[in-house]
């Protein structure tokens, strides 16, 4: 049976009193006594009468209501429940409206356990926070494409290449995280953005390092006994990275061994054990000098709270007119072992906390060369701290 359609007119709606008016085909106009009006559609699905609202009048016009009604009648003709389908579409739309800012925070939270100090240093999140989220943070992650990413990172793609690379990497992780949550995202968007941005012109440069022969002069100039100078002295003597040194806790030291927790050791992803650092006589003396400054168990506290920052040591070297950076002392030490000693490769690399050798070699190796490293670090400390002119010669291994 064919039902008449389009029985109402715009003029009829304006003059309508309280009650219900049929436009045909199940489309109804209803007006209450308080003057509010709305549209609804009556359909029969699976022998059940269903009634679904189509919006308020006049926000939804007569023309719009008819179009909406026909859309849902077509759904009924396919044997589907229009109300259930609309609810599903609404849930999908809401799910895909997650903003990048929220996704980024959730991705960061889920990865904290993998990061040093649960990511408190901020280095994982900061490339996103500084260079991506100000522009894309309020954009639904499902709407982000390669052009958005290109336009966001283009200003730093060549000028701050390493920072841009990290930001792109973090953004790719966020996109994968969104996909894992069930959101509709373009997992290839970051790769496409790289293609649009082109190859980076900037070449990553190594951290400036003091020549190993000049290290004793600098070390012996650190005579003020401040927290910054003491931290630099111990950094030089142990050849560790600044992070574990800055977060050194007194209970990590037992006798002449400093045990760094495995999670604080960068570049040792396949390591499951802590890293032992043999402390030379000079290093132990520096630790004793630093103990009066200790706060909350940390040997090198910050001025107001927390621990000394990496930037504090860098600024100190800046004030001394030096281009070199604290991290560069690791290179100084490594060059010294190569040029002034006959230290085996595996021992020298282990001193730096590097995992030397291939997977098979590491599987059979059961030593961390502690005793050999103890001798080597004592020689290095002597080289750095003694003023005698023949220190270089005495620093040579004789086999």
Automatic annotation (TrEMBL):
Keywords, sorted A to Z: DNA integration, DNA recombination, DNA-binding
Domain Tyr recombinase: 205-377
PROSITE patterns hit by this protein: TYR_RECOMBINASE
The keyword Acetylation is assigned to this record: no
Gene3D superfamilies in the record: 1.10.150.130, Integrase, DNA-binding domain, Intergrase catalytic core
Molecular function per GO: DNA binding
Renumbered residue ranges of the record's region Disordered: 1-20
SUPFAM superfamilies (alphabetical): DNA breaking-rejoining enzymes
Top-level taxon in the UniProt lineage: Bacteria
GO biological process terms, semicolon-separated: DNA integration; DNA recombination
Recorded family membership: Belongs to the 'phage' integrase family.
Protein name, UniProt field: Integrase arm-type DNA-binding domain-containing protein
Species in which this protein is naturally found: Marivita cryptomonadis
Taxonomy of the source species: Bacteria, Pseudomonadati, Pseudomonadota, Alphaproteobacteria, Rhodobacterales
């Amino acid at each position: 049976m064919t039902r008449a359609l389009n029985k109402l007119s715009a003029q009829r709606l304006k003059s309508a009193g309280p009650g219900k008016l049929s436009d045909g085909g199940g489309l109804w106009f209803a007006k209450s006594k308080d003057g509010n009006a709305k549209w609804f559609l009556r359909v029969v699905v699976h022998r059940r009468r269903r009634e679904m609202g189509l919006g308020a009048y006049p926000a939804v016009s007569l023309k719009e209501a008819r179009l909406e009604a026909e859309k849902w009648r077509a759904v009924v003709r396919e044997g589907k429940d229009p109300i259930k389908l609309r609810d599903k579409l609404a849930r999908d739309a809401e799910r895909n409206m997650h903003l990048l800012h929220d996704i980024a925070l959730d991705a960061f939270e889920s990865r904290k356990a993998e990061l040093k100090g649960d990511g408190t240093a901020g280095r994982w999140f900061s490339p996103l926070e500084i260079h991506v989220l100000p522009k894309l943070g309020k954009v639904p992650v499902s709407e982000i494409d390669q052009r958005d990413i290109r336009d966001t990172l283009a200003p730093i793609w060549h000028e701050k290449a390493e920072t841009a690379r990290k930001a792109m990497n973090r953004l790719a992780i966020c996109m994968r995280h969104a996909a894992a949550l069930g959101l509709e995202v373009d997992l290839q968007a970051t790769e496409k953005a790289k293609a649009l941005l082109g190859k980076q012109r900037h070449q990553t440069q190594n951290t400036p390092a003091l020549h190993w022969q000049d290290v004793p002069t600098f070390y012996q100039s650190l005579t003020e006994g401040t927290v910054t100078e003491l931290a630099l002295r111990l950094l030089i003597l142990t050849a560790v990275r600044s992070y574990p040194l800055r977060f050194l806790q007194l209970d990590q030291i037992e006798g002449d061994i400093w045990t760094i927790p495995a999670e604080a050791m960068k570049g040792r992803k396949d390591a499951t054990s802590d890293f032992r650092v043999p402390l030379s006589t000079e290093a132990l003396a520096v630790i004793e000098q630093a103990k009066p400054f200790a706060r909350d168990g940390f040997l090198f506290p910050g001025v107001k709270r927390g621990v000394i920052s990496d930037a504090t040591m860098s600024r100190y070297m800046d004030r001394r007119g030096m281009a070199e950076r604290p991290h560069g002392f690791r290179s100084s030490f490594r060059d010294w072992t190569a040029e002034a000693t006959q230290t085996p490769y595996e021992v020298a690399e282990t001193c730096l906390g590097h995992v030397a050798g291939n997977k098979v070699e590491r599987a059979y190796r059961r030593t961390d060369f502690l005793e050999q490293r103890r001798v080597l670090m004592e020689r290095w400390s002597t080289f750095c701290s003694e003023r005698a002119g023949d220190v270089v010669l005495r620093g040579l291994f004789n086999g």
